[in-house]
Each structure stands twice: as structure tokens, then as C-alpha cells.
Protein: Superoxide-generating NADPH oxidase heavy chain subunit B
Amino acid sequence: MEGKKRKRSEYKRYWSRDGPQKIPRSTKHSRKSSSSKHFAQKTEPLQESSSDLDEHFDEDSTDMPVVSVLMNSYREKEAAHTSEPEMIVNDLPSDVEPHIETECDHNDHTSGEPDMDNSFSEENNLLSVGLCDGDDDQSKPPANDTSFDDEFCCNFNVDDDGCVSEEESSTHSSPARTCDSSPQSDNESSSDSDDEMAIAPQLHLTIQEKIKILLLLATKKRHNLSYSAAENIIDLANVLSHKDENTAFHPTKHIMKRAIELYSFALSEHHVCPDCGVYIGVVGTLSFYCAKCDKTFVTLNNRSDGNMFLYLPMEDQLRALLENCLSEETIIDTRSRKKINQHNYEDLFDGAFYKKYVSAEFLTLNFFIDGVQIGTTTKTSAWPILVSLNELPLHLRRKYLMMASVWLSKKKPKCNEYLKPFVQECSKLQTEGVHYKRNGKNLVQKFKVCVCVSDSVARPLLRNCNQFNGKCGCGLCYHPGIRMAFGRGFIRSYSTHERIYPLRTHEETMFYARQAEQTAVKHIKGIKGQAILSDIPGFDIVKQLDPDSFHCLVNVGKRFAWLWFDEKFHNEPFNISRRLSEVDTRLLKITPTSDVSRFRSLTERSDYRGHEWYHWIMIYSIPCLKKILPNKYLNHWSKLSYALALLMQNSVAKSEVVYANRYLNSFVSEIDNLYGAQHVTFSVHLLTHLTQSVEDFGQPWCHSAFIYEAVNAEIKDLVKSSNGAIFQITKGIQLKVALKKCESEVRHEMNSKEIEYLNRMLTSDISPKPHCSIQNASLLGKPKISVLNPDMLRAMRRAGIVLNETIPHSIYFRCIVNNEIFHSSEYKKAKKQNNSVALLEDNSIFILDSFIVPDSSDMCFALGRFIMEKKQQKLCDTLPPHLKVLKNNPEGTLRAIPISDIVSKLLSFSVNVSETETFRLAFVNVLSMEFLK
Structure:
């Protein structure tokens, strides 16, 4: 393209601690001559011989033929420029490798091909994996730089005359910068790619230095700092502590990245054909060939176009978990674990699938795949594969989530191609297992895939069947769907009209898949062809692709809120848009517990997150709609809340599953007459399959997308620029893994202050520091030392404790019991929260006034008043079991109970449904397991 060439500004090379040496703008020959002279002045004979270099670059490798070319070019240039065969840079610090110039550095680029980086990853044996770093990419391309891609950051930009542009020139021609003469600006997006590709030296750190690195990286992650900011924090700490510069510990960016590399895992870059989407695999050459298209493609162009994904081997991550993070006591023994009721569903292990197909030699994995838009101004989406280990306590399942792969593009991945390396590794984990060491013993652990969790958009891609808006779009049953006119278009309704459709089976689905491929038809009963997941040994393509309750309920909540509050339906009997302000008034007056977020106005419902829709369905909707939504619609809605309350319990009886199924089917079947058949959407239809999912895999919270969606939000936060976003995501995940591995190695050497600081950095929800701990309670805040008033003394005597009236005792107003924070009703600081209502062991409800620790006693008592249920007053015909209607006022007698009698906290509030009628309600938080509280 002809036109005026972009003016190049001068650039810098950092060779030593003496400061930057400016290279004047001139011809390329002059620049090369100047740099050669400068290099000769600063160097002595190299100590690293060509044989040493062979340890890093294998010339005989078939995977990386370009490496041999680069190394041969290096040796030719070395022989031409110096009489000595070996040179070394003396002025470089110990943590920086000397820069190795290759033939690519002196190439005239007359062919117009882009430069290739001369550095390669030692662990991954890949070309240019680390193009961008997650938290440093803040640079912006010049406005007239047409070679810069908006979505991905390539290694180099080349002007029309073949010269490297300003941002990339320092990366291409300079070694890693030193700590003393670093540039002031934190423009790390251009230099990070070269740093990631450089072969870093081995770190020789003491335990104390490793602890400092760990704390520094944890601070970097918590506050989303760049590497330069992290270095400055250490500099500031050294200055404030008046440490000598020669003895002070100064971890450079290079050291921090090397530490992450050592404690993390390798990643590999896999390509797909840009034309047909066929999986190519790992490419170690400048170009690759697609046999299906009979075409050759340039590797760098394919990367910049987004036709690739990064894969992080699960074997390495699982081995790290087994060796460093998990102990034998941490992993749940599913056969001998304690249960509330031996016959109930209490976890995934109680489901029919686990009991039938998972033997004692296996641990099980769930994996999740879904798209997440990385920004509001771009259509680019990330499609990560997240993996969780089931045989862990709930809070650890979230903590030790793994990412196996990530795809980033404006288009959806072809799952049969994208999942190939993942499926191959799952098969290997099932047959060969993971070899690891524990306590000096060599052990093997096998893994089996249990559940694939995804939403209704991704699930058809994984099953290779029609989407929900196509004919026979349900992958669980043979309901064909009914195409109906709706608005200006059409909608597919899953109305049953009292008809029951048979469930699909794995064998039938595979038969239809083979037939569809052999006959080349679009689909047979909704099945288009074979799915790659069926290659995993024993994987049931029907049952193990679970109907995720999270997305299902969120969509149902959105649908009915739209019907009730949107003015489009103002003429319908179920629409209450004219009374939306009344519903909002009730809603905004509610003071929930600290475990449940305060609800926003319904006018902001388009911005509600998933957990807010859960709370609306289960807690807020029925009392807020009482006497506003007509009774027949409210009674119908309460059936959904009733069924979900049964299924979400910690322990679910088989009879309760039967009742829940009855209420869910009744809820779905009545929609035809109440709202119209066009509103029996696919998400509504999935409610009829929830109980089958519970029978196969336990309660919905065992295999919900909720914990994965939280990680999706973290992944979204990792992306700070559209340039190289996929590498920003993987680097963020690698940092998270490195912190866990490094912590497990050095934690036993850390003192209490270091451990406390690390916990603050790694944990988002930190419990308050207790003043003292008695029995199972941790008392918070400074106590009020006072003599007890007569009512308190009488309450203690009723509990069998006689106290001296003149001796002062400790009175507290906050405490932690069973990992829940309780406040007394007299605690005034929490004005928008109510943590003062407790459920006791005998199912009675107690309102807390204060917590008493008698002088010279090791016992703690809760003082308060009982409040009784009001069984005559009902909100609706089908009152959910987790909801209790209480009397408006507690009893007048003050009581004292042992703090150990408290079981859990209740969400309690009052709602004025009319001028003369008020409901005081208490809710058991059945969603605590779902939200891992």
C-alpha cells in the first residue's frame, strides 16, 4: 500500500546498569554498526559454549525446525563478528540472560514477512507463547499503525519498509532490562512478551526470600498491580526500613516471572484451520498445512486472527494438588463419610450415577464450559474449560478450581475440534492416572469425568444436536417443541398439554448420531452427529450433560418478572406494572442478613446477577407480591419456590424428591392456561428434568454452574486490554496456581504475621478477629464490663446459673457461631442488616439481645426472647417449607440459653401488605450450600 510512511521516533536499548544508551535515527546499517561497537565495549569472552546452548535448543527436534535455523544463524554470526568463540555480558545482573542476536535481528525483510522472535520457551518448546502479560498490557498502538491488530498482540509490527515499529523494537532488539536503570513508565506490554520467551536462569532463593516473593506476588494479585508497581513496593519497604542497598532483597520483574514459571505449569498453543476449523494441534514452525483445505497458513497470522487456543495440562495441575495442596484427610472418603441421614441425598456421591459407575480407585471431575464476554465494547468472548474435583469439601472445590483450556474469539468454537486435547487427556487420566509422590512414596491416582456443566447455548454444541429453538431441541427427552407466532417472529414452545414424552438414552443418541453422519442429513430427532465427549470412556452423552439449575432458574426468574412488570403486557390479568412502585417499596425496606445482599430496585432488574435472581425466587418474591399479584398467579408461583426449597436442602429424602417433581410438573403444566403456551420456554421445560438430575447426581448445588460463573467473573477482570487477552487470562490463572504451590512449600516456615498477611491477600472474605473464643463461639469486639440488671439475673437463674449481683461480667454484642456472624438486636452499627434471629436445635426461633460471659467462667450464654410461629396466617396456599410466618412481637420474658444451642441464622423481616395486615417472616437460607456460605 503506497503512501506516506509513518515517522519513526528514536528508541532505546538497555545494556547495563549505567543507564539507557540512545540510538540515533539513521540507516539500519549505522544502527547495527553502533550496536555492535557498544556490545564489544561491554563484553568479555562468553562462558556459555555452543554445546551449552544445545541444552536449550535441540537441533534435531522435529517439532521445532526453526530453532535449528536460528541457532545455526547465531553460530555463523558469532564466528563472523569475533575471533573468540564465546562471549559473556559482565554488566548484566545475575537474573538476566545475555541477549542472543540471530539472523532474524539482521534480516532486511525484503520479502515482507514478519520478524520471528529469537527466544523460545524452554518448558513448552513452543514458538512465542507468552505474547502479552495479563496485568501489564496498558500500552496503546499509534493511531496510524495499521499493522496492529485490535484483538491480539503479535510479537512484532513491521512498517511498509520492513522496519520494526517503536513499541516492538525495544522488545526485539534489547535484552531484559535491569533493575537500577528501568524506564519510569510502566509500558510493559511490549517488553513482557520477550521476557516471557527468554530462557530465565534457575532461581537460587533462600526460604525467607521465597516467602518475600510469595507475599509480594499475593499483594500483586490482590491489588491488581503491574510488575513495576510491585518492584516499587519492595523499594519503598527497603527505604522505610533503612536497609543497605547491597543487602536489601530486590526481586525484579524477571525474578517474579521466573518464580511464577517455576511454581506454575506449562501451557501449549494449539491451532485450528482458519477456513474449515479442523484441529491442527501444536505448531512449532512458521507455517502449517491443512489437509482438508489443502492449504498452507502462516502461524503468526493464524494466531493474530484468533484461530488458536491455549491448553494447560490437567495432569500437571492435579499432580500439584495431590502433592502440595491436599492431604489424605482433606480428600473425602465417599464410602465412610458422616451423613445426616444414610438414605438421603447429601452430595454428588449419593446419586445413582456415582454409586453405579465410580469405584473406590477413582476420584471424579466436573467440568464447565461457557462463553464469557470479556468487555462491554467488544464482541470477543472467552470460552474457558474449568475443572473441579468432587471429593473435596465444598469450599475447597471452589478454591482449587483448575482451568484446562481457553479459547478467545468473536466466534464460538467448534466443540468437536476445541475439546480434542481435553478429551484425550480425560481418557488418559481414566486409564493411566496421575503419577505423584507423597511422603516419599510413588502413587497413582485415576480420575473419571462425572458431570459436564454448561448453559443451554453451549450444551447443544457439546452434544452436537439442535439448539433449544430448533425441532427436537431438548437433549434429554423427545419433546419436539411447537413453533408458535410471537410478536413479530416465532418462538418454540415446550407445552406438554398433559402429554409425557419419553427420555433419551445414550445408546439411542449414539445410534442417531451415526445415522446422521452416514446419511448426511441435517439431523435425526435433533441429533446432528457424534460428539467428541462420547470418546471419553463410559461418558453418557445424555445424562452427564446436566441440565444446569443455575441458568435454568435465572432464566425462569427473568421470564416471569418480564411478564409481571413489563408494560408490554399491561392489558393482561397477570401484569402488575402499574403497581411496580409498591413492590419496590416493600423490597427496599427489607433488611437481610450479612450473608444475603440487599436487593436492588426492580427497575434495575436487567442488571441483576445470578444470585439476585435466586434470592428473588426463593426469598423476596412471595411476600413482596402478596395482595398485589392476583392470588391464582401467586399460588402458582409458590409451587416453584416450594419445589426448589425441597431440592436445595443439605439432606434431601427420596420422598421429598417425589414431592418436588410433582410441584414442578404442576407449575409447568399450569402455565398454558395462566400465561399462554408461548411462555412455556425451554428453560421452563428444563424444570421437569431437575428431579431426574437430583436422582443421578444429588442436589442441584453439587453440580451447579454457580461456582464456575464466579471464576468467569475473575477471568473477565484479568483482561485489561484487547491486545493478547488470551495470554492475560492464562497468566492470571498461572499466578493463582503458583501462589498455592509456593504457599504449600513455605507455609511451615512462615511466622504468624506473615501467615495473617498472606490470608488477607488471598481471601476476599476475612472474618473479624475474635476478642476471645469460648465453647463453639468466637466473641467479637471489646466487651462491656458491667453488673447485670435484674432481668438478666433472672434470665440466668431460669437457666440454672446463679450469679453475684455485685460482680461485673462481660457483655458482648457480636459473635461467630458455626461460621455465621450473629449480632444482638441492640447492635446499632449494622443498620441495614439483621443478624439477630437464630434457629435453635429444637426448631424454635430466638431473637438475640446480648451474649454474656460470667466472670471466671468458661461458658457463654445468649440472652434474648423466643418468638412463636403464627400458623393461622398464610401468605399463599402452598407455603414453602423454608418460610415461617411469625407473630409480630416476641414473648416478653427474657431467656438465657447456652450458645451451643444455636444452629443457624434466619433471615427475618416484616412486610406491610395492607394498612391493617403485617407479616413477620423468617427464612431458612436453603441457598447457603449453593453459595458456599
The two ends are 60 Å apart (CA to CA).
